[in-house]
């Protein structure tokens, strides 16, 4: 009996031991599996991190003045792509062909995508995009905008080198280049056609180099639109594509200037040349006969921080008064004609009474030389008023002041008061231009009998809501004429030119204090003399379908009639007749088409102007989709970039490995020369918006760029650049990072979990072993006691 009980107790003990072993083994296997899983994940993460870190650098790794941008990895930064631009301008008579070569360099060890926001002339007809990879050139194809974007994004995802050129404004473009390999350079070439500007016996062309920071007003409640009566309101943004026209801006107080540009002009005027002058840059000028010059920048390259302007005049007595050029393409003839009407002033006629509303911009972007130029220009204009004139002065930043609260007589006392007020203006604040324009057009009372109402706007045009202002001029101009005066080193010429065109006035540009007297003198001549009106162009003996611009603008003293036309024949015969009148005096000129000289690129200029005509009349049309289709048809037929078409180039061979990450960089730009960074972006956060330059001051222009790494940084980070070989500058940027980085002494969660599982596994193993040995020892003790009879 006792023996059987002993056997039963033994079996129960063995069963308990087996259960303990099973529990311990299960816990052991679970812990081991968890540890292996975490180890595998950690290994994969380490491999991924090492791949990402290949594209990153630490501040101490940088040996030259490079700009860095914070990454999501604590202590690591992204070294930016670098940009260098070469420009060649070939001028042949009234037409310029421009080739812009942008070299994107990737100094980092990772793959990047670069986006560059850059300006072109507002009348440029962009028709070519080429991407050079090694010795190969890949031609860009014109596509509808959305289709071009989809082609680019797909090629980018597939690791193929690709470039996309888009128009954001007629004078602002973006060039995106994807999959630039480590240490690699990709060359993108853009070409466009442009008409030479002529006024007052002077020819000129301008190549803009930098997009000035824009003041972009926020949407306002009054602009909500209700969709199809559904009861849901959608606020309309007055700034189209606002994120596309903004770029990080370097603080010139702390950073070396970047984006070097070399430029050469091959000038063949078509007539004997007199003075040839570069307005803002030092140049070397070589002569090749009496009609040709070669102009190049001194020192090979300059930073892209102000516009380049070249002017030239004919030698005395050789100034052409008219010109007619043609190009035959696809069985059609395209004409470019210009003629300068004679200036026939009636000296006996008394000067017309004028009502002049002067509007001056004293916002922050006008600080420095710009506000001084504007003050000088306006003071000079006020001093030139006649006693019988009436005038007013309106100034604006993010507030507005109507100085006289309406028009007053231009008495000596009022002129002196106004000049003293203007000379005391300082530049600060935002650029709320619309209220000032509304006040100038709506609140100055009725036009006196026999008087001319003129609105003179002095501004740099650094705004993004151009369409709002164009609509205001169109709706409320009445009989007034709007004259714009562009101030500064990088004005928004698109806004200035179009506002003057819609306002039936003219545009004057002043880029330095040296130009104030001469350029304002030209403007006074235009303000004081009657315009040539009722201008019309017709063809005799030949049918012309489209003549641009349509309608023809009014002209002022020294301005030529410039038009383009499309004729259906390849060898048309007939005459072009242009008529108009100055006051009550009629004027007419005829030009024989058969005598037109051959020219290149005229079809592109006609198409560009045709698109401009469509855009100018957009407010008259009720079908935006139909308008876009009309623009798209012309742009595609002539291979032009427009608001609805883009150029895209794709390499057929993938270059970026699938497992390699792709960083994204929006290349920064210089602040325009003479601008005050603190007035634009504020002084309080300036220390964190910028970082220190190379302490030795030796950072080369092409070595100072900033970038962001996807995911994108915060808007504050978007304006923070660093030429940083120092850890201090890197710390300033890292403090504003959009992510919260752990301190370097913190322990990662996955490491803690693995340590905990390991300790749990050891504890289970120790507990199981102790339980087994405890029972065995207890059994041995009992067995020994029985043998001893205890």
Q: How do the strands and helices of this protein lay out in sequence?
A:
Layout: H1 2-53, E1 56-57, E2 68-70, E3 77-79, E4 82-92, E5 95-105, E6 111-119, E7 125-133, E8 136-139, E9 141-144, H2 145-157, E10 160-169, E11 172-180, E12 185-195, E13 197-199, E14 202-207, E15 224-226, E16 233-235, E17 260-268, E18 273-278, E19 283-287, E20 292-297, E21 302-303, E22 308-314, E23 322-329, E24 332-339, E25 353-361, H3 369-383, E26 390-396, E27 400-402, E28 408-409, H4 412-423, H5 433-442, E29 451-459, H6 466-476, E30 481-487, H7 493-502, E31 507-510, H8 516-528, E32 532-540, E33 544-548, E34 561-567, E35 575-582, E36 585-592, E37 597-598, H9 602-616, H10 624-637, E38 645-654, E39 662-666, H11 677-681, H12 686-689, H13 727-734, H14 749-787
Parallel strand pairs: 4-17, 6-39, 23-37, 25-26, 25-29, 29-30, 30-31
Antiparallel strand pairs: 1-3, 2-3, 4-5, 5-12, 6-11, 7-8, 7-12, 9-38, 10-11, 10-38, 13-14, 14-22, 15-16, 17-20, 17-21, 18-22, 19-20, 23-24, 24-34, 26-27, 26-28, 32-35, 33-34, 35-36
């Amino acid at each position: 009996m006792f023996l059987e009980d002993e056997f039963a107790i033994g079996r129960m003990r063995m069963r308990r031991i087996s259960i303990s072993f099973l529990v311990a083994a299960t816990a052991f296997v679970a812990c081991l599996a968890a540890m292996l899983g975490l180890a595998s994940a950690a290994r994969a993460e380490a491999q991924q991190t090492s791949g990402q870190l290949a594209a990153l650098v630490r501040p101490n790794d940088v040996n030259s003045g490079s700009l860095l941008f914070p990454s999501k990895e604590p202590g690591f930064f992204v070294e930016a792509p670098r940009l260098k631009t070469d420009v060649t301008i070939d001028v042949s008579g009234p037409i310029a062909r421009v080739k812009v070569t942008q070299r994107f360099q990737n100094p980092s060890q990772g793959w990047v995508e670069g986006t560059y926001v850059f300006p072109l002339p507002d009348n440029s007809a962009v028709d070519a995009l080429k991407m050079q990879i090694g010795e190969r050139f890949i031609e860009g194809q014109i596509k509808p905008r959305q289709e071009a974007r989809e082609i680019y994004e797909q090629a980018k995802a597939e690791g193929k080198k690709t470039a996309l050129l888009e128009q954001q404004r007629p004078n602002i473009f973006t060039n995106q280049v994807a999959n630039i390999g480590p240490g690699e350079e990709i060359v993108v070439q853009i070409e466009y056609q442009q008409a030479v500007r002529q006024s007052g016996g002077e020819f000129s062309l301008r190549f803009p180099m930098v997009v000035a920071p824009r003041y972009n007003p926020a949407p306002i409640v009054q602009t909500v639109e209700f969709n199809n009566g559904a009861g849901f309101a959608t606020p309309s943004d007055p700034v189209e594509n606002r994120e596309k026209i903004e770029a990080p801006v370097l603080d010139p107080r702390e950073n070396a200037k970047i984006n070097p540009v070399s430029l050469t002009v091959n000038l063949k005027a078509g007539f004997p040349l007199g003075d040839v002058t570069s307005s803002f840059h030092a140049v070397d000028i070589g002569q090749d006969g009496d009609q040709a010059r070669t102009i190049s920048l001194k020192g090979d390259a300059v930073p892209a921080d102000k516009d380049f302007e070249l002017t030239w005049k004919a030698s005395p007595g050789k100034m052409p008064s008219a010109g007619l050029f043609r190009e035959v393409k696809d069985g059609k003839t395209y004409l470019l004609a210009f003629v300068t009407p004679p200036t026939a002033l009636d000296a006996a006629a008394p000067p017309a009474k004028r009502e002049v509303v002067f509007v001056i911009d004293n916002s922050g972007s006008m600080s420095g030389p710009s506000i001084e130029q504007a003050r000088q220009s306006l003071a000079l204009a006020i001093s030139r008023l006649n006693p019988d004139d009436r005038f007013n002065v309106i100034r604006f930043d993010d507030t507005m002041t109507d100085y006289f609260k309406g028009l007053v007589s231009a008495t000596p006392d009022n002129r002196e008061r106004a000049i003293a007020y203007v000379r005391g203006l300082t530049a600060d604040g935002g650029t709320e231009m619309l209220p000032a324009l509304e006040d100038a057009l709506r609140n100055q009372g009725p036009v006196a009998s026999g008087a001319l109402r003129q609105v003179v706007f002095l501004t740099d045009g650094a705004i993004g809501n151009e369409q709002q202002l164009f609509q205001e001029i169109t709706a409320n101009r009445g009989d007034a004429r709007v004259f714009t005066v562009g101030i500064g080193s990088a004005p928004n010429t698109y806004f200035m030119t179009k506002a003057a065109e819609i306002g039936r006035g003219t545009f004057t540009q002043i880029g330095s204090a040296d130009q104030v007297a001469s350029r304002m003198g030209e403007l006074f001549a235009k303000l004081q003399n009657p315009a040539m009106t009722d201008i019309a162009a017709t063809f005799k003996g030949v049918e012309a379908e489209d003549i641009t611009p349509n309608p023809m603008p009014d002209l002022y003293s020294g301005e030529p009639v410039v038009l383009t036309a499309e004729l259906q024949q390849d060898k048309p015969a007939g005459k072009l007749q242009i008529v108009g009148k100055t006051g009550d005096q009629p004027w007419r000129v005829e030009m024989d088409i058969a005598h037109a000289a051959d020219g290149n690129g005229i079809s592109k200029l006609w198409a560009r102007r045709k698109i401009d005509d469509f855009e100018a009349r957009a407010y008259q049309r009720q079908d935006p989709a139909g308008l876009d289709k009309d623009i798209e048809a012309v742009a595609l037929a002539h291979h032009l970039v427009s608001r609805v078409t883009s150029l895209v180039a794709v390499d057929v061979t993938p270059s970026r490995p699938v497992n390699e990450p792709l960083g994204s960089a929006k290349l920064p730009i210089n602040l325009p020369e003479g601008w005050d960074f603190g007035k634009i972006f504020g002084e309080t956060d300036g220390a964190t918006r910028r970082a220190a330059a190379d302490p030795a001051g030796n950072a080369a222009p092409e070595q100072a760029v900033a970038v962001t790494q996807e995911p994108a940084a915060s808007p504050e980070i978007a304006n923070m650049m660093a030429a940083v070989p120092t850890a201090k500058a890197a710390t300033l940027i890292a403090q504003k990072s959009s992510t919260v980085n752990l301190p370097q002494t913190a322990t990662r969660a996955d490491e803690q979990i693995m340590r905990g599982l390991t300790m749990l596994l050891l504890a289970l193993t120790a507990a199981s072993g102790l339980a087994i040995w405890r029972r065995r020892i207890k059994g041995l003790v009992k067995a020994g006691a029985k043998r001893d009879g205890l």
